[in-house]
Amino acid sequence: MSSDAAQLKELTQFLRDKNPQVRQIALANLLGQTPKGSPHRDIFYTGLRSGGLQDIQENDLIRDIKILCRDQLATAHDAFRALVNLSDNSLLVKSLSEPTFLEFLVSYILNPQAILADLASMLLSNLTATTSVCTAILYLKIQILPDEKSPLKWFPVHSRCGTCPAPVPYPSGGPKEVLALPLLVDAFVKAAPGVENQDLEKRTHKGDLHFLASVFANLSTIPAGRMFFLTPRSSDPFCDDVDLEYPLSKLLAFTEHKDTIRRGGVASTIKNCAFHAPAHRALLAGETEKVTVPPSTIAAPGIDILPYVLLPLAGPEEYDLEDQELLPSALQFLPPTKEREPDPVIRLTHVETLLLLCTTRWGRDYLRTHGVYEVIRTLHENEQVEKVSEHVERLVNLLKRDEGPETQKDGVELTEAAKFAESDDEDSRIEEI
After folding, report:
1. Which residue has better confidence, 129 or 236?
2. Is 292 exposed, middle or buried (0-12, 13-18, 19+ CB in 10 A)?
3. φ, ψ at 34 (rounded to 5°)
4. Cα 345 from Cα 254, distance rounded (Å)
5. What pLDDT is stored for residue 56 in this prediction?
6. Percentage of the chain exceeding pLDDT 70
7. 326 in helix, strand or coil?
8. Which residue from 82, 84, 171, 421 could staple onto 147, CB 3.0 to 4.6 Å apart?
9. Is 233 helix (H, G, I), strand (E, B) or coil?
10. For residue 87, what are the contacts with CB-CB under 8 A and spacing of at least 6?
């Protein structure tokens, strides 16, 4: 072991020091070794073991950093950053997804007073790049207490820590266990309006929670995750008597959001849900029509994704009146200042969603009669990125071809196109800061 590594190793004992300043200084000096490529990064992975019949074994250093996520602001900030950087290692993912820490992480994100909720969301995004963590999040339950003084009307019990103190007076009554994922969707939606407000005291949520979009994108890569977004639920997570809605419908408004992470994650979630062909009718149906997603028999208003997929692909071009009438109402008479989605990866994602909707005859017919070709044609005329143009051409071929008896059922080439789009997904990338 080099002298530098030995000195860093000596610092680790001070992470448990009673003096908060000592803990903060020790962690600040270790933080620089957490990004990928750092010369002494291996000290964080020494002794880690998981897999097979072995129980998860974490080293003292990782255990200490997890505990420091609950410390005072400067220390907790560096602890979250360290774990975000280190979470690209599959051995560490096992340790960071153990139930106690996962419940703290999710509860912390849900608490509107959590100052470091964005770093916690980034960590959760990295962890859900692993299928086992996605499964854990889908079934995770957290404890909450009713709290009338909170904007949420409830308090996530395990969010309590140095940067997220418990309410005073502490809520009375016994805790209730609820599924965490519907609450994460609601928090993601509620945090969005406050993003423009730089005064944290006036915001409902201290964090922007943009990285939850990446969490949803990762969850929707597995069948159970897709079915969460495509299964009607009560719009109020605490009351089953209110109207049912598809969770995916809550995300649609953000396909035109100014933040690239939020836009891209939502676009990928929509695309991943489109892999489930039995959901195509529900995905395209309007809100006035109640539809089911087989095998479920529970009906809810249609999700109506088409305007939200097409709008980012549309520019300021004017259409002939005949073409205009085919378009969804949201795309009619767009202003001359309308701009297309600037990120080519997100544009490609939306085109791939349309390709997936073409894997059923019903979907192709619906797209033909709702102005998709007209929007895609102008996109193709203005597209500068070859990969996007190639996908647009494939989409045009599907929409403009003649349908006969041989195309009444889904073709093999369409299934292969869907598989290609799924394998080309870029949503499971690891973030590093």
Report:
1. 129
2. middle
3. -85, -30
4. 16
5. 56
6. 88
7. coil
8. 171
9. strand
10. 93, 96, 123, 126, 127, 430
DSSP H helical segments within 69-116, as ranges?
Answer: 73-86, 90-96, 99-110
Q: Which of 30, 36, 32, 43 is nearest to 2 (CA)?
A: 43
Name the CA dihedral angle for 140, 145, 150, 153, rounded to a multiple of 10 degrees.
80
Residue 134 has pLDDT above 50, yes or no: yes
Neighbouring C-beta atoms of residue 259, cutoff 10 Å: 15
User: Residue 399 and residue 358: Cα distance in Å, rounded?
Assistant: 8
- Cα torsion at 244, 255, 330, 230 (round to 10°)? -30
Amino acid at 79: A
pLDDT in tens, 383-432: 999 999 999 999 999 999 888 777 766 544 444 444 454 444 544 455 55
At 410, list the tokens: 């889904």
Q: Find the mean pLDDT for residues 227-240.
A: 83
Task: Identify which of 69, 50, 47, 70 has the alpha carbon closest to the alpha carbon of residue 59.
Answer: 47
